Amino acid sequence: MTSSTDSLDLDAASSALDVRLAARRGALTGHTSGLAAAFVQGNLAILPASLADDFRRYCELNPKACPLLGVSEPGDPRLTALGADLDLRSDVPRYRVWRDGELVDQPTDVGRWWRDDLVAFVIGCSFSFEHALLAEGIPLRHVAQGRNVAMYRTNLETQPAGVFRGPTVVSMRPLNAADAIRAIQITSRLPQVHGAPLHLGDPARIGILDIDRPDYGDPIDIRDGELPVFWACGVTPQAAIATARPPFCITHAPGCMLVTDLLNRDLLNRDLIAA
Length: 275
Known about the structure:
single chain; alpha+beta; 2 domains; 11 strands; globular
């Protein structure tokens, strides 16, 4: 599900609050790649408190795919450490609601689904390190084309915790060799938004049999002289949730992120925001 932002007057120069308010009023319902370049974006997973300890442990065991930025108090839709005016129920462009592992709704607001026992986890997103790459002159085709990044399930298994387990999901960006080396150097300094790539080159080596058919997001062409470069992706916990089949949970729709007030420039050496 994608939507143009052209008529919304949203772009890389927008503030995080501008993006959240557009999502809150239902004007922005598609991906947030390329928006609010200065601000940290996050994946969202919302689970019953009874599963929160296992899920937090799962994130801690798999920090490249699930780097925690913040954790809410049970039932609290606010996470003020990530934004003074931030509502977890409405400020993501599109959500996914799950029951027993089955997708039951894809709303733009989850107020009617909210419960007093829900704990929200905000997980670092590669859209934040993309801004660091663009600032260094590394071109990203999906951003230039206004498309969502291509994402794939791999044969790289995550470390299990309680009921949570499953494959690592990766995002892919095609780069020439020189830019790939620079991208590795840049992203290795940003562990809170997935850090350095997990793999580059032959996708079959990590279980991707058809690079032209991503499991999530949009297909992106790989041109002559380019390498596919794969980073761990924050959709990984959604794969773990699908495996665990909890009785209830809420996630973001792929590419539809929570844009926080944290600044990308402050990511280095940043600890978990809210415990």
